[in-house]
Protein backbone atom coordinates (compact mmCIF):
# COMPACT_ATOMS: atom_id res chain seq x y z
CA UNK A 1 0.00 0.00 0.00
CA UNK A 2 1.37 3.40 -0.95
CA UNK A 3 0.87 6.31 1.43
CA UNK A 4 -1.36 8.01 -1.15
CA UNK A 5 -3.76 5.06 -0.90
CA UNK A 6 -4.39 5.62 2.78
CA UNK A 7 -5.78 9.07 3.40
CA UNK A 8 -8.72 8.05 5.53
CA UNK A 9 -9.58 8.23 9.19
CA UNK A 10 -8.76 5.74 11.90
CA UNK A 11 -12.42 4.70 12.16
CA UNK A 12 -12.11 3.39 8.61
CA UNK A 13 -9.63 0.75 9.81
CA UNK A 14 -10.68 -2.62 11.20
CA UNK A 15 -8.26 -4.35 13.57
CA UNK A 16 -7.75 -8.00 12.64
CA UNK A 17 -5.14 -9.54 14.94
CA UNK A 18 -2.26 -8.65 17.22
CA UNK A 19 1.14 -9.18 15.63
CA UNK A 20 3.26 -8.51 18.69
CA UNK A 21 3.86 -6.40 21.76
CA UNK A 22 7.01 -4.91 23.24
CA UNK A 23 8.17 -2.56 25.97
CA UNK A 24 6.77 0.52 24.30
CA UNK A 25 4.09 -0.54 21.84
CA UNK A 26 1.55 -3.04 20.58
CA UNK A 27 1.38 -3.86 16.86
CA UNK A 28 -1.65 -5.29 15.10
CA UNK A 29 -2.75 -6.05 11.57
CA UNK A 30 -5.64 -3.99 10.22
CA UNK A 31 -7.62 -3.56 7.02
CA UNK A 32 -9.48 -0.67 5.50
CA UNK A 33 -13.19 -1.35 5.92
CA UNK A 34 -14.85 -2.43 2.71
CA UNK A 35 -11.80 -4.36 1.49
CA UNK A 36 -12.14 -8.15 1.59
CA UNK A 37 -8.61 -8.51 0.30
CA UNK A 38 -5.75 -6.05 0.27
CA UNK A 39 -5.85 -2.64 1.90
CA UNK A 40 -3.98 -4.06 4.88
CA UNK A 41 -1.61 -2.13 7.14
CA UNK A 42 0.13 -2.53 10.48
CA UNK A 43 -0.90 -0.36 13.42
CA UNK A 44 1.74 0.51 16.01
CA UNK A 45 -0.13 1.65 19.10
CA UNK A 46 1.97 3.47 21.68
CA UNK A 47 0.83 4.41 25.17
CA UNK A 48 1.99 7.80 26.36
CA UNK A 49 2.78 6.23 29.71
CA UNK A 50 5.54 4.35 27.84
CA UNK A 51 6.60 6.98 25.30
CA UNK A 52 5.70 10.68 25.12
CA UNK A 53 3.90 12.05 22.10
CA UNK A 54 6.98 14.06 21.09
CA UNK A 55 8.99 10.87 20.54
CA UNK A 56 6.15 9.15 18.70
CA UNK A 57 5.93 12.15 16.39
CA UNK A 58 9.70 12.03 15.89
CA UNK A 59 9.59 8.31 15.05
CA UNK A 60 6.74 8.88 12.59
CA UNK A 61 8.46 11.76 10.81
CA UNK A 62 11.71 9.78 10.65
CA UNK A 63 9.94 6.86 8.98
CA UNK A 64 8.00 9.17 6.64
CA UNK A 65 11.30 10.62 5.42
CA UNK A 66 12.71 7.21 4.50
CA UNK A 67 12.58 5.83 0.99
CA UNK A 68 14.39 2.53 0.91
CA UNK A 69 13.09 -0.88 -0.15
CA UNK A 70 14.45 -2.51 3.02
CA UNK A 71 13.00 -0.04 5.53
CA UNK A 72 9.34 -0.21 6.53
CA UNK A 73 7.26 2.82 5.49
CA UNK A 74 4.92 4.94 7.59
CA UNK A 75 1.65 6.26 6.16
CA UNK A 76 -0.11 8.20 8.91
CA UNK A 77 -0.08 9.21 12.58
CA UNK A 78 -3.25 9.37 14.66
CA UNK A 79 -2.92 11.08 18.04
CA UNK A 80 -5.09 10.15 21.04
CA UNK A 81 -6.29 7.18 19.00
CA UNK A 82 -7.80 4.61 19.51
CA UNK A 83 -8.21 6.12 22.98
CA UNK A 84 -6.90 9.11 24.96
CA UNK A 85 -3.18 8.99 25.79
CA UNK A 86 -2.50 6.43 23.09
CA UNK A 87 -1.09 7.26 19.66
CA UNK A 88 -1.04 5.10 16.52
CA UNK A 89 1.39 5.02 13.61
CA UNK A 90 -0.02 3.38 10.46
CA UNK A 91 2.75 1.34 8.84
CA UNK A 92 3.37 -0.77 5.79
CA UNK A 93 2.38 -4.37 6.53
CA UNK A 94 5.24 -6.77 5.85
CA UNK A 95 3.72 -9.75 4.04
CA UNK A 96 4.18 -12.84 6.17
CA UNK A 97 5.58 -10.79 9.05
CA UNK A 98 8.19 -13.45 9.79
CA UNK A 99 11.46 -12.53 11.47
CA UNK A 100 14.57 -13.23 9.41
CA UNK A 101 15.85 -15.92 11.77
CA UNK A 102 12.44 -17.65 11.77
CA UNK A 103 12.36 -17.42 7.98
CA UNK A 104 15.77 -19.06 7.70
CA UNK A 105 14.78 -21.66 10.28
CA UNK A 106 11.82 -22.74 8.14
CA UNK A 107 14.16 -23.83 5.37
CA UNK A 108 15.50 -27.38 5.32
CA UNK A 109 18.88 -25.88 4.56
CA UNK A 110 20.27 -22.61 3.28
CA UNK A 111 23.58 -21.55 1.85
CA UNK A 112 26.07 -18.76 2.42
CA UNK A 113 24.63 -17.16 -0.72
CA UNK A 114 21.22 -16.93 0.98
CA UNK A 115 22.72 -15.26 4.04
CA UNK A 116 24.77 -12.95 1.82
CA UNK A 117 21.64 -11.84 -0.05
CA UNK A 118 19.84 -10.80 3.13
CA UNK A 119 22.97 -9.36 4.73
CA UNK A 120 23.55 -7.25 1.63
CA UNK A 121 20.00 -5.89 1.86
CA UNK A 122 20.48 -5.02 5.52
CA UNK A 123 23.79 -3.30 4.88
CA UNK A 124 22.25 -1.39 1.96
CA UNK A 125 19.52 -0.09 4.28
CA UNK A 126 22.09 0.86 6.91
CA UNK A 127 24.34 2.57 4.36
CA UNK A 128 21.35 4.68 3.27
CA UNK A 129 20.42 5.41 6.88
CA UNK A 130 23.95 6.21 8.02
CA UNK A 131 24.56 8.50 5.04
CA UNK A 132 21.76 10.64 6.49
CA UNK A 133 23.46 10.77 9.90
CA UNK A 134 20.92 8.42 11.44
CA UNK A 135 21.38 5.05 13.17
CA UNK A 136 18.85 2.37 14.07
CA UNK A 137 20.46 1.40 17.42
CA UNK A 138 18.15 -1.57 18.10
CA UNK A 139 19.05 -4.18 15.50
CA UNK A 140 17.95 -7.59 16.75
CA UNK A 141 16.03 -10.52 15.26
CA UNK A 142 12.53 -9.22 16.04
CA UNK A 143 13.29 -5.94 14.24
CA UNK A 144 14.34 -7.62 10.98
CA UNK A 145 11.36 -9.04 9.08
CA UNK A 146 11.12 -10.82 5.74
CA UNK A 147 8.49 -9.99 3.15
CA UNK A 148 7.60 -13.50 2.04
CA UNK A 149 6.20 -12.41 -1.32
CA UNK A 150 9.05 -10.14 -2.41
CA UNK A 151 11.73 -12.13 -0.52
CA UNK A 152 13.29 -8.98 0.90
CA UNK A 153 14.14 -7.95 4.45
CA UNK A 154 12.55 -4.95 6.13
CA UNK A 155 13.96 -3.02 9.07
CA UNK A 156 11.27 -2.04 11.56
CA UNK A 157 10.98 -0.25 14.92
CA UNK A 158 12.99 2.95 14.90
CA UNK A 159 12.00 3.83 18.45
CA UNK A 160 15.54 3.69 19.79
CA UNK A 161 16.73 5.93 16.97
CA UNK A 162 14.58 8.75 18.35
CA UNK A 163 15.00 7.80 22.01
CA UNK A 164 18.77 8.27 21.85
CA UNK A 165 19.90 10.47 24.75
CA UNK A 166 23.17 12.06 25.86
CA UNK A 167 25.92 9.58 26.71
CA UNK A 168 25.75 10.21 30.45
CA UNK A 169 22.12 9.06 30.45
CA UNK A 170 22.43 5.93 28.30
CA UNK A 171 20.92 2.84 29.95
CA UNK A 172 22.56 -0.50 29.09
CA UNK A 173 20.25 -2.82 27.08
CA UNK A 174 18.18 -5.58 28.62
CA UNK A 175 19.02 -7.99 25.79
CA UNK A 176 22.80 -8.31 25.46
CA UNK A 177 23.15 -10.80 22.61
CA UNK A 178 23.31 -8.19 19.82
CA UNK A 179 24.55 -5.30 21.98
CA UNK A 180 27.81 -3.59 21.07
CA UNK A 181 30.42 -2.81 23.75
CA UNK A 182 29.49 0.87 23.83
CA UNK A 183 25.85 -0.03 24.55
CA UNK A 184 26.88 -2.36 27.35
CA UNK A 185 29.01 0.39 28.89
CA UNK A 186 26.42 3.12 28.36
CA UNK A 187 28.82 5.08 26.15
CA UNK A 188 28.02 7.12 23.01
CA UNK A 189 26.45 5.13 20.18
CA UNK A 190 26.37 5.66 16.44
CA UNK A 191 26.38 3.98 13.06
CA UNK A 192 29.17 1.70 14.28
CA UNK A 193 26.72 0.27 16.86
CA UNK A 194 24.52 -1.00 14.02
CA UNK A 195 27.55 -2.50 12.27
CA UNK A 196 28.39 -4.61 15.34
CA UNK A 197 24.81 -5.97 15.43
CA UNK A 198 25.05 -6.95 11.76
CA UNK A 199 28.26 -8.82 12.58
CA UNK A 200 26.47 -10.80 15.31
CA UNK A 201 23.56 -11.48 12.94
CA UNK A 202 25.98 -12.83 10.31
CA UNK A 203 27.81 -15.03 12.80
CA UNK A 204 24.57 -16.55 14.13
CA UNK A 205 23.09 -17.02 10.64
CA UNK A 206 26.15 -18.86 9.37
CA UNK A 207 26.81 -21.09 12.37
CA UNK A 208 23.73 -21.31 14.56
CA UNK A 209 25.95 -20.11 17.41
CA UNK A 210 25.95 -16.78 19.21
CA UNK A 211 29.47 -15.32 19.33
CA UNK A 212 29.28 -13.75 22.80
CA UNK A 213 26.26 -15.25 24.56
CA UNK A 214 27.25 -17.25 27.66
CA UNK A 215 25.68 -18.87 30.72
CA UNK A 216 25.28 -15.65 32.68
CA UNK A 217 24.88 -11.92 32.10
CA UNK A 218 28.29 -11.37 33.67
CA UNK A 219 30.02 -13.86 31.36
CA UNK A 220 28.22 -12.51 28.28
CA UNK A 221 29.19 -8.96 29.22
CA UNK A 222 32.83 -10.01 29.72
CA UNK A 223 32.90 -11.73 26.31
CA UNK A 224 31.51 -8.61 24.60
CA UNK A 225 33.92 -6.25 26.34
CA UNK A 226 36.88 -8.47 25.44
CA UNK A 227 35.52 -8.95 21.90
CA UNK A 228 36.18 -12.61 22.60
CA UNK A 229 35.01 -14.76 19.69
CA UNK A 230 36.43 -17.40 17.37
CA UNK A 231 35.43 -19.66 14.48
CA UNK A 232 35.13 -23.25 15.79
CA UNK A 233 35.93 -25.76 13.05
CA UNK A 234 32.87 -27.80 13.95
CA UNK A 235 30.64 -24.94 12.73
CA UNK A 236 32.86 -22.88 10.43
CA UNK A 237 34.91 -25.48 8.57
CA UNK A 238 32.84 -25.07 5.40
CA UNK A 239 32.38 -21.30 5.77
CA UNK A 240 34.36 -19.14 3.34
CA UNK A 241 37.42 -17.17 4.36
CA UNK A 242 35.91 -14.02 2.83
CA UNK A 243 33.02 -13.86 5.29
CA UNK A 244 35.31 -14.66 8.22
CA UNK A 245 37.45 -11.69 7.24
CA UNK A 246 34.29 -9.58 6.96
CA UNK A 247 33.21 -10.61 10.45
CA UNK A 248 36.60 -9.64 11.82
CA UNK A 249 36.11 -6.10 10.45
CA UNK A 250 32.59 -5.77 11.88
CA UNK A 251 33.17 -7.22 15.35
CA UNK A 252 35.87 -4.93 16.68
CA UNK A 253 35.95 -3.52 20.18
CA UNK A 254 36.26 0.16 19.26
CA UNK A 255 33.50 1.56 17.11
CA UNK A 256 35.86 3.70 15.06
CA UNK A 257 37.83 0.56 14.11
CA UNK A 258 34.82 -1.22 12.60
CA UNK A 259 34.08 -1.23 8.90
CA UNK A 260 31.27 1.07 7.80
CA UNK A 261 28.22 -0.38 6.09
CA UNK A 262 29.47 1.11 2.83
CA UNK A 263 32.89 -0.51 3.21
CA UNK A 264 31.40 -3.84 4.27
CA UNK A 265 29.42 -3.98 1.02
CA UNK A 266 32.69 -3.98 -0.93
CA UNK A 267 33.71 -7.31 0.63
CA UNK A 268 34.52 -10.03 -1.95
CA UNK A 269 31.92 -12.13 -0.14
CA UNK A 270 29.15 -10.16 -1.83
CA UNK A 271 30.57 -10.61 -5.32
From TrEMBL:
<dbReference type="InterPro" id="IPR000719">
    <property type="entry name" value="Prot_kinase_dom"/>
</dbReference>
<dbReference type="GO" id="GO:0004674">
    <property type="term" value="F:protein serine/threonine kinase activity"/>
</dbReference>
<dbReference type="InterPro" id="IPR017441">
    <property type="entry name" value="Protein_kinase_ATP_BS"/>
</dbReference>
<keyword id="KW-0418">Kinase</keyword>
<keyword id="KW-0808">Transferase</keyword>
<protein>
    <recommendedName>
        <fullName>Protein kinase domain-containing protein</fullName>
    </recommendedName>
</protein>
<keyword id="KW-0067">ATP-binding</keyword>
<keyword id="KW-0547">Nucleotide-binding</keyword>
<feature type="binding site">
    <location>
        <position position="44"/>
    </location>
    <ligand>
        <name>ATP</name>
    </ligand>
</feature>
<dbReference type="GO" id="GO:0005524">
    <property type="term" value="F:ATP binding"/>
</dbReference>
<dbReference type="GO" id="GO:0035556">
    <property type="term" value="P:intracellular signal transduction"/>
</dbReference>
<dbReference type="GO" id="GO:0005634">
    <property type="term" value="C:nucleus"/>
</dbReference>
<feature type="domain" description="Protein kinase">
    <location>
        <begin position="13"/>
        <end position="270"/>
    </location>
</feature>
<dbReference type="GO" id="GO:0043065">
    <property type="term" value="P:positive regulation of apoptotic process"/>
</dbReference>
<dbReference type="Pfam" id="PF00069">
    <property type="entry name" value="Pkinase"/>
</dbReference>
<dbReference type="InterPro" id="IPR011009">
    <property type="entry name" value="Kinase-like_dom_sf"/>
</dbReference>
<keyword id="KW-0723">Serine/threonine-protein kinase</keyword>
Amino acid sequence: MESEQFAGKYVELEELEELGAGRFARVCRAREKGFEKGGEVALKQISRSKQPLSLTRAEYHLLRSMRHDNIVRAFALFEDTPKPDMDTIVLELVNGGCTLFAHLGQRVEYTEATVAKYAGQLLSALQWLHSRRQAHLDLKPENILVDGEADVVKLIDFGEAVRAVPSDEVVPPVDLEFAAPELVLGKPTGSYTDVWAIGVFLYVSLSGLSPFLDDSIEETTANILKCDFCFPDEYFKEISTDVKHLLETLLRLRGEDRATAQLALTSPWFK
